[in-house]
Structures are given as C-alpha cells and as structure tokens.
Fold each of these.
Amino acid sequence: MLRGLNLIPADVNLAFIPKRKLFFAFSILLVLTSIVLFMGKGLNYGIDFKGGIMLEVRTEKAANIAAMRKQLGDLGLGEIALQEFGQPTDVLIRIQRQDGDEKAQQEAVAQVKQALGAGVEYRRTEFVGPKVSNELFVDGLMAVGLAILAILVYIWFRFEWQFGFGAVVALGHDVISTIGIFALFGLEFNLSTVAAVLTIAGYSINDTVVVFDRVRENLRKYKKMPLPEILNNSINETLSRTVITSVTTLIALLALYFLGGAVIRDFSFAMIWGVLIGTYSSICLAVPILLNLNIQRRGTLVGETVEDAPKTP
Amino acid sequence: MVYFSKTKTIMVLLVCLFGLAFSLPNFFKESTLASLPDWLPHKHVNLGLDLQGGSHLLLEVEINAVIREQLETLVDDVRIELRKAKINYTGLGVSGTSAVKVTIRKADETDQARTLVRAIAAQSDVSVDNNTILVEMTDREIADRRNAAMQQSVEIVRRRIDETGTREPTIQRQGDDRILVQLPGVKDPERIKALLGKTAKMSFHLTDDRLDDAIRGRVPPGASLLPRVDPTQGFGQVLIKKRVMVSGEDLVDSQPSTDSQSGQPVVTFRFNSRGSKKFGAATAANVNRPFAIVLDGKVISDPVIREPILGGSGQISGNFTFQEATDLALLLRAGALPAPLAILEERSVGPGLGADSISAGKIASILGMILVVVFMAIAYGRFGLMADAALIINMILILGGLSALQATLTLPGIAGIVLTIGMAVDANVLIFERIREEVRLGRGPVSAIDAGYSRALTTIIDANVTTLIAAALLFVFGSGPIKGFAVTLGIGIVTSMFTAIMLTRLFVIIWLRRTNPKELPI
C-alpha cells in the first residue's frame, strides 16, 4: 500500500509557549527595525505611486548601460536610473516625474525614444502622471486598510476578541516587516507589492485561524488542562499541517521566483517572505499572545457567555 | 461524510465536465475552434494587455476648456448684437469661470440690451445690477455642456482609433472627465498618442492686411494674430479675421494625396453642400487675396485665392511629410475634439514581452505543479495522489472558469494561479492531518475519514473566507493587472474548496468502497 511519510512526527512536542518571551523580543526587534528603516531609508516607490516614466528596452547586443546613461542624462530630464533587467540585452529605465503637467511627461517619453533611436525594441512603456499616482496611492492604502479591517471583523465574529487581537498583532507584524524588507533591500514598492501585501495578510490570517480553531476546540475538550499546555499542544497538533502547507506554497512561489520572469520577481519575493513570516507569526505570536489576554475558559463555547467576557483593558 | 448520494456524485462530475469543456478551447488554435459546432464552448481565455501586448491609455478631457470657449463665443455674440443695435457698452468680458459681464453706458438702453442678451443666452441666468448685465451659466447648463462634450470626445476618440485600423479597441468613459482606451496588439503607441494629442479644430479665415500694426501690438478688434507653421512661406505670423469663413465641421471627407505638379504630399478635402456654398461665395468675393487655414490655433497654410473655388473641394499643401499628410487627413475625417485631451497614464507592452511573460508563466506553473504533486505524494501516499488528481482538475476548473467568465488573465493573474497551486492543497492537508489524528486515536478507517472531513470543514471555511475577503477587496480597489490577480485568486479559492471538499472526498469514498481497507495508508 502506498503510505505517506509522516514528515513531521505525530508525537512532536516542541516548546513554543515556554519560549514565547524570546519570540516576542525577536518580533519587537523586527518591527522596530522595520519602522526605523521605513522612516529613515524610506521605500523605493515605483511609478505607480510616485509618478514618472518607466521603459523596458531590449537592444540587439548586450546593452552598454553606461553609454545609454550618458546619452539619456544629456536630455536633462532629472533623475534617471538604469538597470539590467533579467538579461544583458534588457535595460529598465526609470525617469523621475517631470515638472509641469501631464504633457511634459509625454514629451519626455518622446524625447527618450528619439534619443535611443530605432535600434531598440520597446518592451514596455509605462507612464503615470501625478494625478493618477495620487489616486493609486490612496486606493492602495484603502484596499490594505479595508482588507485588514474586514478580515478582523470576520475573526471577531467567529472567535472572541482575544483571538481577534492576537490575529491583528500577527497581521500587523507581517505587514510591517514586509514593508521593512522592501525598505532594507530597496525593492520597488508598487501596485503589485500592495497585492502581495494583501495576499500575505490573507495567508497569515489563514494560518492563524487554523491554529486558533484547534485552540478553541481544545479549550472545550480539556477543561482542566492549564492554558499554556493547551496552547502549546494546539500548536504542535497543527504543526504538521502548518509546515506542509507552507512547503507546498513555497515550492510554487519559488518556481515563480526563478522561472516567472523578471517582471514579477519582486512580487514573488514579497510573497515568499510573507509565507515565511506568516507561518512564524501564527505559531510564535498569535497563539502565545492569548496567554496574556486572559481567555475566559467558559466563554469559549460560542455564544454562551458573551456578556461576561472581560472588557477591553 | 462518508456517503455520497447519486445526485451529488452526478453534480460533482458535471461541474468537472463543464470545467473541462470550457477549458479545452485554450489548447486549440482559433481556426480549429471556428470549425466546431456552435453549442460547444469555443472561447479562449481573455489575455490582458500585459500578456498579449498593447496599450492602455487613460485620458482626461480638459472639460473646463469647453466652458471657457463657450463663454468666449458668448462674448463675441454679445459684442456683435450690441454693435448692431448701436448700444454703447464697456467692460465686456468673461467674469469668473462661468459668467460674462458687460456694462451699458446709457441707463435707458439697459433694458433693450438685456432683451438682446437674453435672446442669445436663453439657457443662462441673466441679471442686471445698475447698468451691468451679468450672464451666468446655470449648473444644469454647465453639466449638460460637459456631458455633451464628453460624449463627443469619446466618439471622436473612437473614430480616430478606428481610422488607424486597430483591432478591437475598448474605449470607455470613466468618471466625469476621463476616457479609458485599451488597444490590444498596438505596435506603435506613439502614433496613436500623437493623434489623440491633437484637438484638430480646423477653420478657414480671411486674412487682415493690418499685419504690421498687429505685430507692433495693436491687434485690430475682430482679428487675431496667429503663428504660421509653414516653412515654405517663412514661419512668421499671420493676422486673420476671427470670423470663420468655413469651419472644419463642414468637411465630409479628407484624404492624403500628392500634388500633381510639385509631387509634394498634400491633403485633399471635400465640403458638404453648406460648406461648399459658403466657401464658394467667400472665395468668389476675395479673389487674389490670401486666406488662412487654421489648425489648432496655428496657420498651416495661407495661400492666395486664384479663382473662386466652387466645386466644394480643395487641397492643403503645407509642406507635409507623407505621414503627416496621412495623419492630418485622418484627423480631419474623424472630426475635432471639443476639448484638448491629456494622457494621465500609459501602460504599453510590446508583443515580445507579452509572449515571454506567457511562456515564463507557463513554465513556472507547470514546474510548480509537478513539484507540489511529487511532494504531496511523498507526504500522504495514496491520499496524496488523490489530492494531486484533484489539484490537476482544479487547474482545469480555473482555466475553464476564466474562459467561461471571460475574465482577463494578466501576469499577476498567472502569479495568482501559481499561488493557488501551492495553497489549493491546503484544504486537503487539513483533512488528511485530521484523519491521521483520528486514526491515531484508534478509530477505524471509515470513522476516521468521516471525522476527519467533518471536523476539518469549519476550519477550511474559516481559513478560506479570509483569503476570499482579501481577493474581493483587491478586485474592487485594484486596477488592471491587479484586478486580474484578484480574479484568479478568487476563482482559485472557490475551485480549490470544491475539489478538496467534494472531489477528493468522492475519490476517497470510491476507494474505500472498493478496497474496504483495515487500516488507512495515510
């Protein structure tokens, strides 16, 4: 008979809860560093949010980026960044937003195309004017904000506020540290990144909910067992699932990262990071935090003692 | 949970069959599909511009220009009427953003003037304060004008793009003053942008011979000093009479051509009968005097009228290249925009990059899938293989769903599919882990499977609803490619829940019935 391998042994019993102070310290450090990086170094906003021009060109032979930089620099269009993109013949050109109205941007595109001449293939031309970039930024913020809010309302509705709080902490941790990673490596923060962040939020909550479900079940099952033990058991019981799902998702994302093409590499990177940090935060943050939140043992039966649940401290 | 009614089994199989039917056309060429009977699905997945190549342009109509122009016309009309009635006035001009003001010198003429003005501006509010008449456009009037201008702009944009021969363009009005243009497969967006960037208001005017005065700064009333863009006559300036001899609206056709004598590219045009009459009369009365052809506030040519032009057709020779003549003819044929357009956003992808993205996406999905399939087989043995079969059917369902809904597949959308491959097995993982636990607790195969499915179900739903919420918000707030990501993610969640909860369960039950195992190979 074809039997599956127990990749994570059934009797696994790692001490997550006893080490929670260590995890908390690590996470606080991670979040603080991210905030410092975000404030200090800032994000490398793409043209979606900053406005500006981006061209992806392919030259016949390996591109001479230095010469191209000189050539375009002479146009006096302000800050121009060039980088090899995926392969030696491909160059990504980023030009800052031009002063003046939308017409000025179009003229700059035309100027660049003229300067580069007919020998290059324009694989991508993107230009976002100041009006639209502002709107996209606001829409992006709205999307992330509303998604997190909606997910929380759902969790609050399905569980109790303590669980909701744990989920928010884990979620905030994941989103902030993703932003920190983007600041640290100077990766382009654009619309796709927002999509990635939202998906990370979804994934992180997904992971958290699975462990929470088990905690709730065990709370009902073992009325006398001390809370730390219940939490630790719940994590270990769901550990196999947590790891296997993370592995399959990571496998797929790694395939995308290495083979999906340069255009979505940063996007895939954000997701890979998100899966790792999301898995960590559900196990090491969301659940241990429940210990500090005074869960009412009786109150865990849905709808039974909602009234005497403790007030928010 | 270890029971499947006949109807349910048939339903599950039907869903899979429909998915297959809708996904199959993607594996055949369009030409093969055309020969299939009509009742079979024959639609490919709708590829986004980032995959098939093309241009996305977001245009803004500078709608305030329409109102401003309207007010300026009103000023001219008021001037003409008051002069005709020999009423003295002062301070005639546009006031603010929606009104025209004029002060009548003699108090006893104010009433007469008001009647005249009211006749011209019937839709506007006309009020009198002392001797000053104020004509204000009502909000309603402004809204109507804007609306009409928007509709006309969309129509003209459509005509211009159609004239370039672009296949299946999408031209949509968006919000109060925007137009979204999507041009699949366009190779030269610069040309289209240039065509859309011109208002193309053309008019024919007589010239005024007091050019020297005008250049010295004394432009006579009713005349206007405009730059000349015709290098053959030396650039300089031309003083034209503001009154329009014939306007471009009276043109019925316009074609690029070459002049029979000089061999230069020219633009020929033809007037409608009203235009022919006006043009004939004006040229007959002004033989041997120059007239000016004005395009968007610039004189493109100011030839001398050699003889009356009565046939209603003529040609413009303005030292064009052939491309310029072609484009000018196109613009004149399509008509003038009521207001200038600004390009707010452009995203153009060349066909090469699109094709590369598709093949990279395919390779990534296939490899990702193979790896996940192998991993699941290792982790869960026979059950893993059942989950794998469900995963493959899941992919078919996603493809079928995308084709059936004619949703747009974008590059981030492909990323969404690859992500789904990884996450789709999650529901199965949850169930299998639960079954393992139940087995460890000493339950028999049937009861373990039953408990596994029923206990994992709430968790699966809780976990997926949260991701579905994220997908829904991405769809609402995202633009273009991101919407595509939300669509595949959303479809993927729904299909993966279906395959995990219904399909693998069906597999497991069938296997359970056939082998009746003593223990579970999980």
Note: Chain A has two domains: 20-44+133-300, 52-128.
Amino acid sequence: MLYAILCYHDEDVVMSWSKAEDEAVLAKRKLVQKDFVERGKMGPAIRLVPTTGATTIRASGNEQLVLDGPFAETKEQLLGFYLVDCENLDEVIDFAKRMKEGESCTFEIRPVQIFEEGVLPQKVKVAS
Amino acid sequence: MNDMAWIETALTGARPQAMGALLRYFRDLDRAEEAFQEACLRAMRTWPVKGPPRDPAAWLIFVGRNAALDSVRRDSRNTALPEDSAISELGDAEADMAERLDDSHYRDDILRLMFICCHPDLPATQQVALALRIVSGLSVREIASAFLVNEKAMEQRITRAKRRVSEANVAFGAPGAAERAERLAAVAAMIYLIFNEGYSASGGEVHVREPLCNEAIRLARLLLRLFPAEPEVMGLLALMLLQHARTPARIDGNGDIVLLEEQDRSQWNRDMITEGLALVDKAMRHRKPGIYQVQAAIAALHARAAKPEDTDWQEINLLYQMLERLQPSPVIRLNRAVALFKTQGPEAALLLIEPLEERLSNYFYFHGVRGALLMELGREREARTAFDKAISLARTPAEAAHIRQQIDRLISDAKPRAKSA
C-alpha cells in the first residue's frame, strides 16, 4: 500500500524560522528517512509554495470559476491530488477545468517543488 | 519552539490586525500602541498558563481596548480600578467577543495602518522607519541599527513622523474602491522602499541588510493575503523574492559586490525563485500590467537563465520599454541601456544614456554604466573619468570597491603583458 503523509503547520510560524531552525528540522527528519531510503520505501517529497501562490477552481452552476488564493472551506476533505508538468498556470487551469467539467468538486492549484526525489518512482504501479 | 518563542511569533503575526483595529477605536497612534503593548504584556502573563487563545489578534484587540479604556477612566476619575484580578478572566473573553471582526473589516484596518505610515509628506526614510515601528513592531533600537544611526536620532525621526501623521487626518471610515486602490498603491511603494533599504543599503559598511528584506517580503505576503486578486501585489512579492533570491551570491567573501553576470547561480535561493516565478505567472493571467509586475517579469527572465548567456535580453529590452511607458524615468532608461548593449552593442546603449547625463549626474550607477560602455568602446580615458566620478558618489564601501575593480581591469587591459595573472 502506498501512503501519503500530508504535512500541516502554520505558514507564518514556519516562515519565521531561521535557516538554522529550518535545517535542524529537516536534518532530524532525514535521519529517520535514511532507513526507508535504503530499503527502497521512500517516495518523492514535495514542497508546496506558500498559499499566496495558490489558485482555486470552483463550480458555480455550470460555470467553473477561477479564483486567486487557496481553498479555504473546512466542510470538504482533501481526497487526493494530481501532479502534472505544465508550461504555465494557464495550461494547468485549462487542464483542470476540463477534468472537473460537470463536477461540483473544488480544485486548488499549487505550484510545487520536488524537495527530494526519493527512490520509489520506479516501483510505483497502479494496483490491478 | 518554546512557549516564549511561540508567543513572540503569535504577537508579531497578530500585530498588524490588532494595531489596525485599536487605531480605528482610538484614532491615535500613541494610544493604540500603548493599548497594544499592554495587551502583549498581559498575553505573556496569561498565555503560558491558560494556553494560547484560538484567535490571538481578537484577544489582543479586546484586552488592549479594555485596558486603554480603563486607563482613560482612571485618569479622568483619578481613582484606582481593579487591575489584574478583573482582567485575568479575559482568557476566555474571545468566546463572547462583542465585535467579531470579519475579513473585510480587518483588511481595511491593516491597510489603513500601513497607509498612515506612507503619508506623502513623509520623506522616504521616515516612512520606512515609521512602518517598521508601527506595523512591524521593531524596537527603536532595532530600527536604528538597521539604519546605522544612533537610537536617539531614530527616536526623534519616528516622533517627528508620528506628529506629521497625526496632523494629516487620515479618514477612518471604510474606504471606497478608488480610495482603497490608491492606498494599496502607496503601501506597495512603501513596502518596496523597506526592501530597497535592505537590498541596497544607502550608507555604512553593510551592503545588504537581510532583516529589512525579509520584513518587506513578510508585509507583502500579508498584503497579498488581504488582497489575493491584486496582480500588482503579486508582482511586488514576486519582484522582491526574485531579487532577494540572489542575495547569497551578491557579495563575495571580501564583501565586494558580484555582478549579476558573474554570480554563482547555484547559490541563488531556489525556494524563493520557484515562488517568485509562480507569482509572476499568476499575475500575468490578469492582463493588467503594472510597474511591479513588469519588473518582476524582468527579474524572472534572469532567474530562468541557468547561465548568463542564456538570458533573453531581447525580451528584457521590450519589458524595459513597457516599464518606461508605465513610469517614465531616467533610471529605467539607464537600466534599459544595459539590455540594449547586450542586443545591439555599446554604441547604441551609450547613445541612449548620453541625454540622461544632466538628470543623473549625481547617480553612482549612471557613471558606472557609462564607464563600462566607454570601456567596451575602447575609450579608456573617458571611461576612467566616469569611474572616478562613480567612486566619488558611491554610498557604501562595496559600491566603491566594485568600481575600483573595473578600473583595475581597465588598467590591466591597457597593458595586457605587464603582469601575467
């Protein structure tokens, strides 16, 4: 079974960390990851850019509205995510709109940075 | 993170909103500041015991307002009121807060608080000092050391600025759309001033004062959260991130300036670049170009070039032309000259900047660029004169050293066989 570990924290608090504090946290985690890396169990780690870089697409009647800013409701739950490689925001928005056509779900688009490649990609297969 | 560190972060984070609301109540900067200080003191006593409140800003507003009202009453009646015993119950006060502030409400509070600091009567340095004191909450000592002046001088500067502001009669009602847009533009300019004060220090030994850059970025991020659909605010944040990303490569081990072309690009901060590029991209979708967006787009072209020779100078030249249309300025034309030099050679670039001489005769960078172009054209004697002029106008030792380097190169080019390097 593949698992995603989703990281939550207060953006302001994390951004107020000094470089040393930030590095200390990452170094501590890295130590734990080492064993998973050696055993081929570690997938990629992804860092999202701060929420000010987010764009949200939500359904309003038959229309898909594109809004600046992150998804802010708490009624819905995070159910999954796609990772796509696009030239620019226009291309992602176009793709996302077509995907959610006729659906009432909300998509939040966040630029990401591959933080660690991990050792998993070769092993990822959709379970049949 | 220990208790006190957590509380400090929470207080800094809540400050603009709390100060903004307190200013709306009291319409007086000093009184609002006192109220906020008092609320912070009580927070430091109460929060470690009772735990942090769910909404620190609302807590601070409520406690600060009551404390200030108490002190007003005390002063007027000259009788003692119960101090802590009555107030210590306020830990849960936020639950039945009389006035829950919704987003749009505190948005205007914060904007007003920032706007008050950038009154057009205030000279740039006073705007920056006042904003750092009032919005960011830096101590006078911290601001004084950022400006490299003594504490007393900074205290006076801030007091003078406050007096000016209190005479200015800023409107306290909710602003209309046009007024809001005007305030937003003034605040954006003020934030960029803070950034530039840090990025290109205007005096003293240090060339980059990182805390000022970081603070400007923090304020721009706050502004963008309040106005998430404003492309110019996206542009401002992007511009500062893309410029600040280069900081680790801008000064070498000796404290000398390293030109963009010669910087070790692997030292650039990738996180900031990723975020900056994403914001430029996001802003462009609005098709409402503005000065920060165009400058950010220029910075983005540099950030995208893995090697200096990959830089799209053609596009940069076009963007500078666009910037000149938005904001005609000899400094922008001077910057465009560099792009023109890259695409059409030194002759064309020199022709572009010669007419600027009169207006930019006291500008260090003008003589630096002119010297470099003359050097390219082989007009060494004139180049030397321009560089000498630049040195005499340099504001920091790093700037002067940088020009001296160019002169050294000029000399070694002139007699290439004098010394084998």
Note: The mean pLDDT of chain A is 88.
